Amino acid sequence: MNMIWFLRMAKWARRPPSLRQVLLVLGVVAICLALAAFEWVFGWPEALTVNSGGSPRVRISPP
After folding, report:
1. What is the largest CA-CA distance in the chain?
2. Euclidean distance between the first and the last CA atom of the chain, given in angstroms as a whole number
3. pTM of the entire structure?
């Protein structure tokens, strides 16, 4: 581990985050998990899928 991480852990041990900040992080994680579960159950919408066709690639065959 890098020394910065030890300093960061010491800072959090001395001044832990507030309850509001912890609830905010947990809320964001819960929203991300809900979106992932929704996509897993219902799939990805076809309208939001990027078309695979792009500029055609030029193939150079050996002589």
Report:
1. 71
2. 54
3. 0.59
- Which helix or strand (DSSP H or E) is residue 30 part of? helix 19-42
Q: What's the rounded Cα separation, in Å, for the pair 27 and 29?
A: 5
Cα–Cα distances in Å, from 24 out to 8, 31, 33, 35, 45?
20, 11, 14, 17, 29
Q: Spell out the domain ranges in the chain.
A: 7-42
Please report, in tens digits, the pLDDT of each residue of the chain (63 residues total): 789 999 999 998 999 999 999 999 999 999 999 999 999 999 887 777 777 666 666 667 766
The C-alpha atoms of residue 4 and residue 14 are separated, in whole angstroms, by 15
- Which amino acid is residue 59, in one-letter code? R
